[in-house]
Amino acid sequence: MPDVEVANTGLLPAGGAGWQESLGAERRGHERRGQERLGQERLGPKRSGRSSEAASRARRLIVTGALLAGDGAAILAACGGSLLLMAASGASPGIPPASLLGWCAVQIGVMALFGLYEQIEAEPIERLRRRSLAAACAFGAGLLMGSGAPWSWAVAAVIAALLSVPLGHYAEGFVRARLVRRGLWGAATIVYGEGAAELARSLAARPELGLRPVGIVCEAAQGVEPFHAAVPPGAVDGTASGSDLLEVAEVAICTPGEREPARFAWLTRHPFRQVLVAHHAPEVETVRLQTRCLGPIVGLVVRRAIFLPHNLRLKRAVDLAVTLPALVVFGPLIGLLALAVKLTDPGPAFYVQPRVGRNGRTIRVYKLRSMYRDAEERLAVHLASDEAARREWDRFCKLRNDPRVLPGIGAFIRRTSLDELPQLLNVLRGDMSVVGPRPFPAYHTERFGPAFQALRASVPPGLTGLWQISSRSDGDLGVQEQQDSFYIRNWSIWIDLYVLLETIPAVLTAKGAR
Question: Which of 443, 355, 432, 357 is nearest to 398 (CA)?
Fold first, then answer.
């Protein structure tokens, strides 16, 4: 083994004398100050490598069992919903209980083959794609199982397969959130090389990726400050030394700065389940990366699927399929909200604002009016008299306590995003898409750099987007640029489906809304 050490990240607190003695004076100082800052405590006796391995196996079994339970409940609910819809329509699929349970088992088996019970295999968007493909395979199996059955069996199978995708997605999110809270989600990961602490912090901030940083491997002489994170209650039943972390780690990541062949060879010889070679390339940030052999060079295939004509036609077809029924469902609600606005502040209930659309074209965006009619004058006075508000406006182009917003109904429709419902008409007209970067006013768009403005203007703006389901108004201009760039460069029908599904809980919880 090369001259390296495994620094404890704080997810597994330091506790063994040998581990402390292996640290240099500078590293001990960093570690002591970090532990004092975070108030970390020792959690029981030091575990052996064998007990660490057993704990890892137990954790994987718990995770797999929880995911199976969530999927089983979701698929049974989908089957039940299918039967209810068929009964409401007066049709009887005539499905025997044994066939129903068999179909559920087939779908779970297909999802297992697609790696949905290995949380290190894929991030949420890719997992949704695999779930959808598994549902399609299960539908095909259902047709074979029901060969000779009436046509209603095929209809019931279609409905059940379609319902199983969103229900399974939400069930997985529910299970994952609770496993993350208990420190059980994600494979124990060590990070190796320059910038390891930064990468570890990034992974810890996104537990849905399934890589839980527990250690940083570095050269002892470098004195790199260990990565620290809060310890979830009950997540760790012991402490770990450097050798223990190597025993418990399932994944190793070699960062871009590590170029020493001997050290990388050591990583590949160690029995990790996976060794990932990180590559810092924000311009090709992607969900499903493809490679091509270019002799001794590895080529990264970068596709821009959203610019292909057939994909734009597919996106438009999805827009119409979503918008037409949504207008029927939400039409009465829009009318009631418009009446509430007029009762609160006499004047027009709807507001039309010019915003920047595709190719820089100005589009007229429809909204329910959530502000006073003299909103701009109120804003100017408020920003001139409140320096803190001015700084907040410069960073977010939004205010947490906005003097322009109507009391009661205005705050409600903004918090729940119901003021955006009239933009379904914009989608119907083709000015916007259901999913895409949000159309901003010119004063907002002009704060971005020219390159990003051009990238943003190359696609249709959206009613909802990646920013709305993640950071929303809590994300500043830099976050907006990163997330919109990621969406445009990685567009697929699966990302649109993921954003649509995640929009519902984002609206219901009103997280980050202003």
Answer: 443
